[in-house]
Amino acid sequence: MTFEIDAFGTLVIAVFFLFIGRFLVQKIAFFRNYNIPEPVIGGLIAALCAYALHLFFNISASFSAQIQNILMLMFFTSIGLSASFVKLKEGGKSLVIFLFCVAGFVLLQNAVGMSLATVLGLDPLIGLVVGSITLTGGHGTAGAWGQVLETEYGIQGAIVLGMASATFGLIIGGVIGGPVAKFLIKRHQLAEQVAVEDNDQPAHADSAAFEYPRKTRLITANNAVSTLGMFALCIYVANGMTEFSKGQWFELPTFVWALASGVILRNILEHVLKVNIFDRAIDVFGNASLSLYLSMALLSLQLWLLADLAGPLVIILLLQMLTLALFTIFVTFKVMGSNYDAAVLSAGHCGFGMGATPTAIANIQAITNTYGPSHKAFLIIPLCGAFFIDIINAVVIQTILKFF
């Protein structure tokens, strides 16, 4: 029996489990000590509850995809609207270096997946599915490429396999980022745990997007309305560009158009029209949509798809997890400077290396809430994870498929 949950019901359930996640992080030292994000804990509890209902009572629920999609687009729009060119210059060389790290890992991820698939007697393209298609690309990329692999390359069940692998990645990406960063911080004595700050104090005026998510932002109704108008305009343009670019060489996912629209609108208003952008409102809507989207994404996961995975595929996924952890510890951390910022960037890399950009942001928020701010991480991770990583991944996948 499947229950259809409308948008309001989906929102209520997501908020409920988000608060459960927050409560558990506050009460359970393990989650707090290893910096597991609150939406990940709450969403995982929700997914486990859904799995139990499906397993024992054959009950499942279908949640509103529309509101989840809107929150996702709001999240990526907020990244774009926060991307002032003045602030982006601060990323500079570090952003380029980090992109090389990310590109290197995408290649390694596919090499590991395809090699293990071959050794285990599977089609090497299945290793590609359990590689960057799903783990770096996420559910959207898994669906798109899964259809191509089924129709053009004869890989039966590629879509189901891709969704299951992306599900595993989304969970693990939100679980391992905190422990990896904590290990690096403790081992190299990079920072001490900071005292819990008073949430009624406002965030610093120069903070990057998504920094200080627990701090109070003082906004007015006028600021909220004008900011929502900017969000709506960016998403409207993004939907239009998605339709216009279909089948064209510049075809891109809607969330990329939303991010790009935000960047363009922000900098036209700020630098051409000299309009003062109210970043506090953007931060509020961005952080709220991030938490709710991540909770809903995990809420909608069908964990029973993972239960159907064959043993060899589970082995590949576990080794992919180990590969990512080792890569971020021994490559990302060292290349980015072996300092506190590098440790936080490593947590973010874990987030979108096996999950998604929202997971990466949640990871670095969990770390900075415990050990203090990392301005560089909040400049680099959103841009890399939301925009550049998809371009890099698409080029790598298309190049590999040319040889098959």
UniProtKB/TrEMBL annotation:
Molecular function via GO: glutamate:sodium symporter activity
Top-level division of the source organism's lineage: Bacteria
Spans through the membrane: 7-25, 40-57, 69-88, 94-113, 125-146, 158-181, 218-238, 250-269, 290-307, 313-333, 377-401
Membrane topology: Multi-pass membrane protein
Alphabetized Pfam families for the sequence: Glt_symporter
Keyword terms of this UniProt record: Amino-acid transport, Cell inner membrane, Cell membrane, Ion transport, Membrane, Sodium, Sodium transport, Symport, Transmembrane, Transmembrane helix, Transport
Cellular component GO terms, alphabetical: plasma membrane
Cell location: Cell inner membrane
Gene Ontology biological process terms from the UniProt entry: L-glutamate transmembrane transport
Primary localization: membrane
HAMAP family listed in its UniProt record: GltS (MF_02062)
Family as reported in the entry's similarity comment: Belongs to the glutamate:Na(+) symporter (ESS) (TC 2.A.27) family.
Stored NCBIfam families: gltS (TIGR00210)
Role description: Catalyzes the sodium-dependent transport of glutamate.
Name of the protein this chain belongs to: Sodium/glutamate symporter
Organism from which the protein derives: Acinetobacter lanii
